[in-house]
Design goal:
Elements lengths: L2 H9 L3 E4 L8 E5 L2 E6 L2 H7 L6 E4 L2 E5 L5 E3 L4 H5 L3 E4 L1
Antiparallel strand pairs: 1-7, 2-5, 3-4, 5-6
Length: 90
């Protein structure tokens, strides 16, 4: 599928990935964010220089599981946007 169909699937709660990614354990998910806000933990408060517990709003974003099993917000590359090898994972 193309990136549009993949993003639609992610918004429906599916894990998505590209068949050509080197890391077979990688996948992307839709994180709905925190539109009503969530209290800042210690790491976030230090990074933003705000008091711990300050309520911060987060917009939706895509998050990737990396090869080492950690997670990070994800931004598609040009090839990710234009390829049609996207799949839904179980």
């Amino acid at each position: 599928m193309d990136i549009g169909a993949a993003i639609t699937a992610a918004k429906q709660g599916k894990k998505i990935a590209r068949t050509n990614w080197n890391g077979q354990s990688q996948f992307v998910v839709f994180q709905k964010g925190y539109p009503e806000g969530i209290p800042a933990n210690k790491n976030t408060s230090e990074a933003l220089n705000v008091e711990e517990g300050t309520v911060l709003k987060f917009r939706p974003y895509l998050m990737i599981r990396t090869v080492d099993g950690s997670f990070v917000p994800w931004l598609a590359s040009m090839s990710d946007l234009l390829e049609t090898d996207w799949v839904e994972l179980d």
